[in-house]
Every structure is written in structure tokens, then in C-alpha cells.
Amino acid sequence: MTPHFRLEELTFSSTAVRLGIDNTPSKEVIENLEILAEGLEEIRTKLDSRPLIISSGYRSLPLNRVIKSKDTSYHCKGLAADFTSKHCNVKDAMEILSESGIEFDKLILEFDSWIHVQFPEKGQKARRQVLVINNQGVKFYS
After folding, report:
1. Cα 84 to Cα 124: distance, rounded to the nearest angstrom
2. Torsion, Cα of 111, 43, 97, 109 (10° steps)
3. Which residues in 36-126 belong to E strands, given as ranges?
4. Are 21 and 59 in contact, with CB atoms under 8 Å apart?
């Protein structure tokens, strides 16, 4: 897809494998995954070209429901990924990315453990929402 992100990486799910859930993306989702991969390349560049560890990318609707996520999740569209980096802690990465010019739709620091990024659908404007989710709920990042 891009120099540092392969389709297999953005669609792999150990949960899907373990439970025998088909997580094969449609043609439309693959087109969205290309948008995601390009956005992840921009993120990687902003983080000094250090590798990203993708913990969750595309999720088929059945997989998404098994993990009790919302049907409207951008993961189901192939436009979202959860990631960390061995070379940059998530709080530092959030600071760098929130101040960047990257056209993400949402950037969410989740439980101080990983970052969720989602990109707008083709033709849609990036909202650039920056949020924090923790045990107290959701709030705007400050």
C-alpha cells in the first residue's frame, strides 16, 4: 500500500483468527485503507520516521461487534487505526501530532496507552478533533 504499511498489517486481527471471523476487506474498504496508509505515513514522518505498531486497523462488522465497538466505528470503514511506537511515548506523540498539519478526522489518546487516528472519507473535510478517553469519559485534549 505504502512504503511502510502493508494491507496484511492493516487488516490482521488475532481476535478474528482465534474466533474464525472473516476480516477480509471489500474493494471500497481497500480504497479507504490506502487513505489510512498514506495518513499513517505522514504520522510516521512526524514522529521522526520511527516505526508505528498497529494494534488495530480494519475490522469487519462481525469482528467489531465481538469486541463491543460501535457499528459506526471508522475501523469498519478502513479509515482508522490504533497505534503506539517503541520510540516515542503516546503523550509525546499526541503533542507532536495534535500540533501537526496532518489532515486527520480524529486523534484520540486512549487510556494513556495508545492513539486512535481516523481519517475523513474521500471528499469529506477533516475535522481535526483531538480527544482523550479515560475511565472518567471523553474530553477534548488540552
Report:
1. 26
2. -10
3. 53-56, 80-84, 106-110, 114-118
4. no
Give how far Cα 71 sits from Cα of 24, 66, 85, 96, 98, Å.
17, 11, 27, 30, 26
Q: Say how many CA atoms lie within 13 Å of 85 toward its Cβ.
A: 20
Grid coordinates standing for 25? Answer: 476487506
**Rg of the chain on CA atoms, in Å:** 14
Nearest to 40 by CA among 6, 88, 91: 6
Bridge partners of residue 83, in order along the sequence: 54, 115
Over the stretch 13-72, which tens digit does the pLDDT of each residue have? 999 999 999 999 999 999 999 999 999 999 999 999 999 999 999 999 999 999 999 999
Write out pLDDT tens, residues 70-124: 999 999 999 999 999 999 999 999 999 999 999 999 999 999 999 999 999 999 9
Say if residues 111 and 87 touch (Cβ distance below 8 Å).
no
Cell of 62: 462481525
Strands 129-134 and 106-110, bridge-based pairing = parallel
